[in-house]
Write a structure and sequence with these properties.
This protein is mainly α. It is built from 7 helices and no strands. The protein has helices spanning 12-32, 36-42, 54-76, 80-106, 110-134, 136-141, 143-165. Helix 1 packs antiparallel against helix 3 (54-76), helix 1 runs parallel beside helix 4 and helix 3 (54-76) packs antiparallel against helix 4.
Length: 167
Amino acid sequence: MDKIKIKNNFNLGNFIIAVLLPLTVGFIAGRLNSQSMEIYTGFEKPAFFPPAWVFPVVWTILYILMGIASYLAWSSSTSKKEARSALTFYLIQLGLNFAWTFIFFTCKLYGLAFIELILLLIFVIITTVKFCKISKVAGLMMIPYIIWLLYAGVLNFYIWKAYEMTA
């Protein structure tokens, strides 16, 4: 098993910032789209759709994992160029994650949201590969996010098909 290796001493301040960044992005997106749970519960959903309460729980866990992974990638890297590259893709995917909520819930453009989610998934996979090259643990911490995005893609596609393709 790959041990968590941190190049320098653990920096609590940087760790907190790394964890708070994705949590804050998620919190702001949620607050600005406060009607999202109401919209979600209004959809006619098949049995494989989770109850609304699952989303904030899962996203909180995923944001914490992302934050820890980003900290490990930054603090474990022997090359700041390599770390900057990985964190650039990380920040882009975080921005795409933020944007998806508005495209889907505010604009109700389910097809565009699905396409954007595919782009998000591509950036998350690239980020994961870059993190993994720096720290296997950081890369592994991104895997639940990829799995959740694949599941979210199925949900998004179903809603797109049900609410836009048939209109």
